[in-house]
Amino acid sequence: MAKISLDKLSLEELKALRKDVDKAIAGFAEKKRQEAKKALEDVAAKHGMSLDEILGGTAKRKKSKAAAKYRNPEDPSQTWSGRGRQPAWYKAAIAKGKKPENMVM
User: Signal peptide position in this chain (predicted)?
Assistant: First the structure.
């Protein structure tokens, strides 16, 4: 591998080089992942199955969005699942004395 003299590069050149290296690393990792997936698919096919059948469909499963639990009494189009950060309308309603159970859908 050729040795690069980093001392002679400008800041912009160093940043560009870092960007190129990061891109090459990501591309390398993705290539290896694809190769591993292909090898697994070949083994599964050799046994008369698909990789998805072996993994039970988990290969492409996505997280489902949590169902809404609370509704803004002043604007019913605004809802919140009760997970994550409390929306501003929920905080304001609680500050005004509303009970969470009164905003349940």
Answer: none
From CA 50, how far away is CA 26, in angstroms rounded? 27
CA–CA separation, 88 vs 75, rounded Å?
Answer: 12
- Could you tell me the two tokens for 9? 């590069």
Hunting for tokens 């492409």 — which residue is that?
60
Dig out the tokens for 31 from the structure.
Answer: 């290539």
pLDDT tens, position by position, for the chain (105 residues)? Answer: 778 888 989 999 999 999 999 999 999 999 999 999 999 999 999 999 988 888 876 555 567 788 999 999 889 899 999 999 999 999 999 999 999 998 888
Burial (CB count <10 Å: 0-12, 13-18, 19+), residue 18: exposed
Q: What is the pTM of this model?
A: 0.42
